[in-house]
């Protein structure tokens, strides 16, 4: 990893914060399902002289000179992404997942057109039509939900009824807090019936798809996949849009640049290329499979203790716990308590939550980061025991302090990639 000698001398305050964050990551358990650890190689690719170069346009068609090496890294990122996901076209320039979604909307729709996506409280994402976003001022968003929160089954009959009534331009599969596998084929059939595009926002499960541990929407005929490049894909923070349709690919490219963004962040594209190369290695399939094994084991242990899980289990990398039903505590209180023992996760709304988003009933946790550190099923048992003990001893400050030391000692057995000991 970089030495940070120049930073230490020039800006000791930032250097101290960086050192503190590295220590926090080494000594703590990261269970936020949208977070992960990048390799030393990806970290090096993120901070280098590519930052100095403007590269508006696409490989071979730039608006500035001096692009022989930027073209190399972007072409590598594109080809590796296509190989990973079986895509015919990939745009690796979106700065994040939200811009990738916005660019896709503008490529496929006109103002006033309709998107049919998952309700936020049932696992959807802000960019899928939450009223607080500016997108709702431009497009109309209608929603579908689970018909059974005990199993996680989506109400495809309701989805079809809404689609027939609202005539959406896009039917969107994509989730930030949904623990089950989606039936892409059923969604595609509904979209074909109403003449809609199919779009899958796979930001959370992209690494599982790349590693063969989750179904690829392209295999069921989806038109577009958008994703982030971090999370389960274990790359730098960024976004990507993919399709198998050459004409849609042209629309995506024009929508990203010049439609929505200016110059791409070339050092991040270089880091994406490195991460995609890592994901093409055979061991990444083992990693993706282990993420799911760990999540299923963690879910099973919580349910054995009597905790109430949304959908009563998981098929992917995350699980949701109804904390009010399980322990008589709101999600914010549980998040804060677990922070005190060195376990990081996030409060989250449960389906049709009567509480507010900043003080919801549930928590969300996942296994990508801890799996990157090498933890296996037996380690999930230990982590669940730590969390249950924290709940039990929450009124005892000395017990919470001792538990934090126990968690720290446990974590130090598992190195964090890219961070010096």
How do the helices and strands line up, and which of them pair or pack?
Layout: H1 5-10, H2 12-27, E1 29-30, H3 40-46, E2 57-58, E3 61-62, H4 68-85, E4 89-91, H5 97-108, E5 114-118, E6 140-144, E7 146-148, E8 153-154, H6 156-166, E9 170-174, H7 184-194, E10 197-201, H8 206-210, E11 224-228, E12 239-243, H9 246-256, H10 266-279, H11 282-304, E13 318-322, H12 323-327, H13 331-340, E14 343-344, E15 346-348, E16 362-366, H14 368-372, H15 377-392, H16 397-411
Give structural notes.
This protein is of the alpha/beta class and about 425 residues long. It has 2 domains: about 45-280, Type I PLP-dependent aspartate aminotransferase-like (Major domain) (Aspartate Aminotransferase, domain 2, 3-Layer(aba) Sandwich), CATH 3.40.640; about 285-410, Alpha-Beta Complex (Aspartate Aminotransferase, domain 1). The chain has 16 helices and 16 strands. The protein has helices spanning about 5-10, 10-25, 40-45, 70-85, 95-110, 155-165, 185-195, 205-210, 245-255, 265-280, 280-305, 325, 330-340, 370, 375-390, 395-410; strands at about 30, 55-60, 60, 90, 115-120, 140-145, 145-150, 155, 170-175, 195-200, 225-230, 240-245, 320, 345, 345-350, 360-365. It has a 7-stranded mixed β-sheet, with helices on both faces. It has a 3-stranded antiparallel β-sheet with strand order 13-16-15. A two-stranded parallel ribbon has the order 1-14. The longest helix is centred in the C-terminal third of the chain and has 23 residues, at about 280-305. It is globular and about 60 Å long. The mean pLDDT is about 95.
């Amino acid at each position: 990893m970089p030495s940070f000698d120049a930073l230490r001398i020039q800006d000791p305050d930032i250097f101290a914060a960086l050192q503190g964050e590295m220590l926090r990551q080494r000594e703590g358990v990261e269970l936020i399902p949208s977070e992960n650890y990048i390799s030393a190689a990806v970290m090096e690719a993120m901070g280098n002289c590519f930052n100095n170069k403007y590269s508006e346009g696409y490989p071979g068609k730039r608006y500035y000179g001096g692009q022989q090496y930027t073209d190399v890294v972007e072409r590598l990122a594109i080809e590796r992404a296509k190989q990973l996901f079986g895509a015919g076209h990939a745009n690796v320039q979106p700065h994040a997942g939200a811009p990738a979604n916005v660019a896709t909307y503008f490529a496929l729709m006109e103002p006033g057109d309709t998107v049919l996506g998952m309700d936020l409280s049932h696992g959807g994402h802000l960019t899928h039509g939450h009223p607080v976003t500016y997108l709702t001022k431009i497009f109309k968003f209608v929603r579908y939900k689970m018909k059974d929160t005990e199993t996680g089954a989506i109400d495809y009959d309701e989805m079809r009824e809404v689609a027939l009534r609202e005539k959406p331009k896009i039917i969107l599969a994509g989730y930030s807090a949904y623990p089950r596998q989606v039936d892409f084929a059923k969604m595609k059939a509904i979209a074909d019936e109403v003449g809609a595009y199919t779009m899958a926002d796979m930001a959370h499960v992209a690494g599982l798809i790349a590693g063969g541990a989750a179904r690829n929407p392209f295999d069921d005929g989806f038109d577009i996949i958008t994703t982030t490049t971090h999370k389960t894909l274990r790359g730098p923070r960024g976004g990507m849009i993919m399709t198998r349709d050459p004409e849609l690919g042209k629309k995506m490219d024009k929508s990203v640049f010049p439609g929505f963004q200016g110059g791409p962040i070339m050092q991040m594209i270089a880091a994406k290329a490195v991460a995609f190369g890592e994901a093409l290695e055979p061991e990444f399939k083992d990693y993706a499979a282990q993420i799911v094994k760990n999540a299923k084991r963690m879910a099973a242990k919580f349910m054995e203790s009597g905790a109430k899980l949304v959908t009563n289990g998981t098929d992917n990398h995350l699980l949701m716990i109804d904390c009010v039903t399980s322990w008589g505590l709101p999600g914010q209180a549980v998040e804060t308590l677990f922070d005190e023992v060195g376990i990081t996760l996030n409060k989250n709304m449960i389906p049709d939550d009567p509480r507010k988003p900043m003080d919801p009933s549930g928590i969300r946790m996942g296994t990508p980061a801890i799996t990157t550190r090498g933890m296996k099923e037996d380690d999930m048992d230990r982590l669940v025991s730590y969390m249950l003990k924290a709940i039990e001893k929450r009124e005892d400050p000395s017990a919470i302090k001792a538990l934090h030391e126990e968690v720290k000692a446990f974590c130090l057995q598992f190195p964090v990639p890219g961070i010096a000991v």
